[in-house]
Amino acid sequence: MSRTLCALFVLCAISWANAADNAKPLTTILLVARAEMADPNFKDSIVLVMNHIGPSPGGVIINRPTRIPVSRVFPDLETLAQLEDKVYFGGPVEIQSVSFLYRTDKPPDHATEVIEGIYFSADGKLLRQLLGRDKPMEGLRIFVGFSGWARGQLEAEIARGDWTLEPANATTIFDPKSQHPWPERQPAGVGRGV
């Protein structure tokens, strides 16, 4: 059986299981880079791919903390000065852009639900509201840049064997045990400021 058919079978199986559980179509998956991944931007990465946030698949790498503290990105928020939390490298596209994933029981404005209770947004006002909470980084992950593919590109990479597919869940996204530190060589521009 070809890799393309295997990937499609896996996607359909995850979709069927998801549809049976909560009657919603699958729109979010995890891509896990295989050891043979040649692209240094994605080597050893886990990417949360959200198929309903744009015209083609897009997402963020969830296991690449940078060396940039959140407090450096938001120097005007003095309450963040003592935090050690880092901003994550979401991907090689538009590394000047900031987006975030966060948990909440109440559906917010200006955010898209990607998994039950987890929302994705690039709304600066909403992010600042979250950072103003008593525990600002609880259930919050901030990204610079994002990962994106042209139509058909991701399917070709899956067929080539660059990725394995996994179901997405809150534990995988926010579990600090799944983090991989940056390799010695970072993509151009990352770690030198935002």
Intertermini distance:
45 Å
Shape: globular
Secondary-structure element order, N to C: HEEEEHEEEEHEHEH
Per CATH, the class reads Alpha Beta
Rg from alpha-carbon coordinates: 17 Å
CATH topology: VC0467-like
Output the structural class.
alpha+beta
Amount of beta strand: 25-35%
In DSSP terms (H or I, runs of 4 or more residues), the helix count works out at 5
Task: Write out the CATH superfamily name.
Answer: VC0467-like
Q: Mean pLDDT score, rounded?
A: 77
Number of strands: 10
Low-confidence stretches: 1-25, 180-194
Q: How much helical structure, as a percent, in the residues?
A: 10-25%
CATH architecture: 3-Layer(aba) Sandwich
Report the sheet with the most strands, covering strand number, pairing sense and barrel closure.
10 strands, mixed
How many domains, in number, for the residues? 1
What is the element layout, followed by pairings?
Layout (H helix, E strand, L loop, with lengths): L2 H20 L5 E6 L12 E5 L7 E4 L3 E5 H4 L12 E4 L3 E11 L8 E4 L2 E4 L2 H8 L8 E9 L4 H8 L2 E5 L2 H5 L20
Parallel strand pairs: 5-9
Antiparallel strand pairs: 1-2, 1-10, 2-3, 3-9, 4-5, 6-8, 6-9, 7-8
Structural overview:
- The chain has a single domain (3-175), classed as VC0467-like, CATH 3.40.1740.10.
- Helices cover 23% and strands 29% of the residues.
- It is built from 5 helices and 10 strands, in the order αββββαββββαβαβα.
- Strands 1, 2, 3, 4, 5, 6, 7, 8, 9 and 10 form a 10-stranded mixed sheet that branches.
- Helix 1 packs across helix 4 (153-160).
- The model is unreliable at 1-25 and 180-194 (pLDDT under 50).
